[in-house]
TrEMBL record:
It comes from Arthrobacter globiformis (strain ATCC 8010 / DSM 20124 / JCM 1332 / NBRC 12137 / NCIMB 8907 / NRRL B-2979 / 168). The lineage of its organism: Bacteria, Bacillati, Actinomycetota, Actinomycetes, Micrococcales. This is Putative glycosyltransferase. It comes from the Bacteria. GO terms for molecular function: transferase activity. Keywords: Transferase. Residues 1-25 are annotated as: Disordered.
Length: 82
């Protein structure tokens, strides 16, 4: 759950990961309401947690960073050879 502006980096990460709920940063009552709603929906909470863990593993982990860097370097080397 994040209280952040729409269009922010955090909001984009939440959207990409499907691992959380976003509310406007200037609306504390929306944050409380979202937390209460999530506490009553165990399956949704599990889904968000699973999605967040998958996103961390596939996108934010050291292994994922190294793989992306390797792809980047390979693409540079390949484009230089043309």
């Amino acid at each position: 759950m994040a209280a952040t502006d729409a269009g922010s980096v955090t909001a984009e990460e939440l959207e990409r990961s499907q691992g959380g709920v976003r509310v406007d940063a200037d609306d504390p009552s929306a944050l409380v309401a979202a937390a209460e709603a999530l506490s009553q929906d165990r399956s949704r909470a599990i889904e968000l947690g699973t999605n967040g863990q998958r996103f961390r593993r596939e996108t934010l982990s050291e292994g994922a960073a190294i793989a992306h860097y390797d792809e980047f370097i390979t693409s540079l080397a390949t484009s230089r050879g043309q």
